[in-house]
Amino acid sequence: TALLGCGTWLISGLTLVTGCGSDATKKPTEKAGHHDGEGHKEGGAEVAHAEEGPHKGHLIELGKEEYHGELLHDDAAHKITIYLLDGAAKKNVPIGDKELTLNIAVDGKPSQYKLPSVPQADDPAGQSSRFELVDQALCETLDDPKCKGRLNVTIAGKSFSGEIAHQDHEDHK
Q1: pLDDT by residue (tens digit) across 5-22?
Q2: In what side-by-side order are the strands of the sheet with 148-155?
Q3: What is the pLDDT of residues 68-118, one digit of tens each?
Q4: Cα dihedral value 49, 152, 63, 52, nearest 10
Q5: What pTM does this model have?
Q6: Which long-range contacts (CB under 8 A, 24 or more apart) does 30-37 make?
Q7: Res 54: pLDDT
Q8: Per-position DSSP letters for the chain, written without gaps between them
Q9: For residues 84-122, b (16+ Cβ closer than 10 Å) or e, as one string?
Q10: Ramachandran angles phi, psi of 169, nearest 5°
Q11: pLDDT at 65 over 50
Q12: Structure confidence by residue, pLDDT tens digits, 141-171
């Protein structure tokens, strides 16, 4: 549903919502920084972990949950969209960069893709929180089960990198 497709994504080794404890507090079955969708206690209140972003895409942790990228993959249109979001993965975070970079590797063969900015209506002039690329080769690369990669972005003068990896899913276009 939504703009999923070309396979769906597992964000491996990443924590999905702000304020989670250290890896030493994880259950033995949890990967470092990855949560099973259950909430956790923060200041005595239960905090839920987001499974998907506000656009129904898969979340990519940037920094120590300072920001998130939300990746949508439209198989029919061969379009990849990434939204930049705050630490809670709810609000847009516009930046002045004209493009984002995806570094992708399949079987050790690296590729780099630049996603141009496509500002949303409420983004300030000269800034964008949405980046898109229509590229059939990228869609096919992202469909490969051996695909791994990183999203690289600079927000508020600080460089961030978030890991992405392919996962088959039944609900894609």
Answers
A1: 444 333 333 333 333 333
A2: 8-10, 158-167, 148-155, 99-106, 109-116
A3: 999 998 889 999 999 999 999 999 999 999 999 999 998 889 999 999 999
A4: -10
A5: 0.69
A6: 33/61
A7: 93
A8: -TT--SSEEE-TT---STT---GGGS-TTSPTT---S--EEETTEEEPPPSS-TTS-EEEEETTTTEEEEEEEETTTTEEEEEEEETTS-SB--BS-SEEEEEEEETTEEEEEEEEB---TTSPTT-BSEEEEE-HHHHHHHHSTT-EEEEEEEETTEEEEEEEEEE--SS--
A9: bbbbebeebbbbebeebbbebbbeeeeeebebebeeeee
A10: -150, 150
A11: yes
A12: 888 888 899 999 999 999 999 998 665 544 4
Tell me the C-alpha distance between 109 and 107, whole Å. 6
- Two tokens at 154? 């600079």
Residue 39 has φ and ψ, to the nearest 5°, of: -85, -175
- Assess whether pLDDT exceeds 90 at residue 131: yes
Copy the structure tokens of residue 20: 């989670």
